[in-house]
Each structure stands twice: as structure tokens, then as C-alpha cells.
Design brief:
This protein has 322 residues and is an alpha/beta fold. The protein is built from 12 helices and 13 strands. The chain folds into 2 domains: 6-103 and 293-321, Rossmann fold, CATH 3.40.50.720; 105-284, 3-Layer(aba) Sandwich (Rossmann fold), CATH 3.40.50. The longest helix has 19 residues, at 293-311.
Length: 322
């Protein structure tokens, strides 16, 4: 009898996998879902025999782990991000690494837009003061017309482009910095391409849309964020490591940056002593920009279908490296 193919799923975020399991069952694939508490036991009993690994971002797929997964031929990240996987180590072992870069574009765009408008219209400050009995519309930071506002997009990939499309009807001026984007894309979306320092000096609000790489890690430090106009705002729905958090805290306390909307942090979940959690000027959501019922189902099904492709000997979609 032919042995069943195996896929090992490691997820410590409590995400739903029922639709994913249905795909594996239809194709006669054996699967095991492991959390941090069962990881070592399941690795010894199942993981080392698995043909494919599905890894949620909370799990680090290290060179050391890959040495133990001798039967693994492909790794699939459960979402867009792949910085939790040692891609180079996988490539050396001939293991393909694939992500799912476009399953939640709508959701991330909508979440980004919500954070931008919330900050620009100073809604948290109004809400707090109104509940304290301070019924004064002028008692908050300056508010400007959206048509007088410059929004800078750091990165101009698929999500940033859709954010630009959503922002355009508000009359804002949109500029963007992305050294890898095609010039025609800027023109198609009516967005002005600029260098990084120009983006920062001109933008009343900067929205971040870059992957976390060696190039983008700590990209926005004190010196760079200090280039922003006084009173500027920052929105981050990409990866926490792009911003040096202590520098952002410092600039907010110095009243140079007037607020931030952060869906991602360097450490998730954050230590409760993280200064960003204590600042009234900062809105934090728990890495939730991707989430909708529809996106969650799409993530499961398309990830599982990509695993099936690999197990059937076909090349997976969205390979990051061979």
C-alpha cells in the first residue's frame, strides 16, 4: 500500500484550519496541527516524516529545525509574510518556500484606510474628551482638509496601489517611494514617485507597505522620522521591524509626530511595558488588518491547494526561492 503524504501545520495563533483540513482529506493527505505546547512531541512523531510544512508567522522555521525535517520538500507560510522562515537555509536543502501574497489585499487596504482617516480626523482624541464631558471641537491637534493633505506611501506594491485607489476620491495628494516599482504603475494610479527623503519631508501622513528584509529593517529610525513635518502621522500595516519603536516613542513625546496607527509591532503580542501601549496618540490593533471571514477561508483553501500541488509533483505557486 502506498504511504499517505503528510503535511505538518504549526500555528500558535489559534487560526482556523477547518477548510484547509477538508482539502487535505479530499486528496487523501494526512495532516497534523501543532501548537507550541505540542510542538516537540508532534515533531518527533509526525513532523520529521512530513512532506510539507505549513508555518504560521509565530513559529520560527530555522536552519536547525530544517536539519531535522529530512523529508520536507516544501514550506508554505500561512499568509503573506515569510521573514519567520530561513529562506536561504531552505534553498540550500532544495526546499521551496512559498507564501500567499494576495489573499487579503482588500482587508489590509480597508484597515489602512480606516487608520488613516481615524488619525487625520483625530477621532480618538475627540472620543476621549467627549466622554470626559469636554464638548469642544477645537480642543485637539490641528485638523486639515484632506484635499490639503499629502499622503506618502512607503512601498508601492499591490496593497499600496489599492490604498492609493481608495484614497484618491478624498482629494489627497499621493506620493510614493519604491525603487523596485515600474514607472508605469505610478502613472497608472496617478501617484508621484519620489526618493525616500523627499517622501518623508513632504508627507503629512506616511503609510508603510514594504516587506521586512535586511534593506527595510529599522528603515524608519529617529533621523529618518525626524524628516517628517512637525505634526505628521504614521500608519503601519506591514511589519513592525520597519520602525525603530523607541525612536517613534521619542518623537511622539517630543511632539514632532502627533500620532500613529500600528497594526504590527516588533514583538507580538507586545510586552505590556511597551511604551507604545501607554501613549494616547497611538492606536494599536492586534495584527488584524488581514482579517475577514472571507479572507480567512481563502487563506486556508489556497494554502492547502498549493500544498497539494507540491505533493502531486507540480511547482507550487508564489515560490520565494528554489
Amino acid at each position: 500500500m502506498q504511504k499517505k503524504a503528510k503535511v505538518w501545520i504549526i500555528d500558535d495563533a489559534g487560526l482556523t484550519h477547518d477548510k484547509e483540513f477538508e482539502v487535505y482529506e479530499r486528496h487523501g493527505i494526512e495532516y497534523k496541527l501543532s501548537t507550541a505546547s505540542t510542538f516537540e512531541k508532534d515533531k518527533a512523531e509526525f513532523g520529521i516524516y512530513a512532506d510539507a510544512l505549513v508555518a504560521q508567522v509565530a513559529f520560527q522555521v530555522t536552519d536547525e529545525l530544517l536539519r531535522e525535517l529530512e523529508n520536507c520538500k516544501a514550506i508554505f507560510t500561512f499568509g503573506m509574510g515569510f521573514n519567520h522562515v530561513d529562506v536561504q537555509a531552505a534553498a540550500k536543502r532544495g526546499i521551496t518556500v512559498s507564501n500567499l501574497p494576495d489573499y487579503c489585499v482588500e482587508e489590509v487596504c480597508d484597515h489602512t484606510l480606516a487608520l488613516c482617516l481615524t488619525l487625520l480626523r483625530r477621532l480618538p482624541a475627540y472620543n476621549k474628551k467627549a466622554k470626559q464631558g469636554k464638548w469642544d471641537p477645537t480642543d485637539t491637534a490641528p485638523i486639515h482638509r484632506l484635499s490639503s493633505t499629502v499622503i506618502g506611501l512607503l512601498g508601492f506594491g499591490k496593497i499600496a496601489r489599492e490604498v492609493a485607489k481608495r484614497l484618491k476620491p478624498f482629494g489627497v495628494k499621493i506620493i510614493a517611494h519604491d525603487r523596485y516599482a515600474d514607472e508605469a504603475a505610478f502613472e497608472a494610479y496617478g501617484v508621484t514617485p519620489v526618493e525616500l527623503d523627499e517622501l518623508l519631508t513632504q508627507s503629512h501622513l506616511v503609510s508603510l507597505h514594504v516587506p521586512l528584509t535586511e534593506e527595510t529593517k529599522n528603515m524608519l529610525n529617529y533621523e529618518k522620522m525626524k524628516l517628517l513635518p512637525k505634526g505628521a502621522l504614521i500608519v503601519n500595516t506591514c511589519r513592525g521591524g520597519v520602525i525603530v519603536e523607541e525612536d517613534l516613542v521619542r518623537l511622539i513625546k517630543e511632539k514632532h509626530i502627533s500620532g500613529a496607527g500600528l497594526d504590527v509591532l516588533l514583538e507580538e503580542p507586545p510586552n505590556l511595558n511597551n511604551e507604545l501601549l501607554k501613549l494616547e496618540e497611538v492606536i494599536i490593533t492586534p495584527h488584524a488588518a488581514y482579517l475577514s471571514e472571507e479572507a480567512e477561508e481563502e487563506l486556508q483553501v489556497r494554502t492547502a491547494e498549493n500544498v497539494v500541488r507540491s505533493i502531486e509533483g507540480k511547482e507550487p505557486h508564489y515560490i520565494i526561492t528554489h
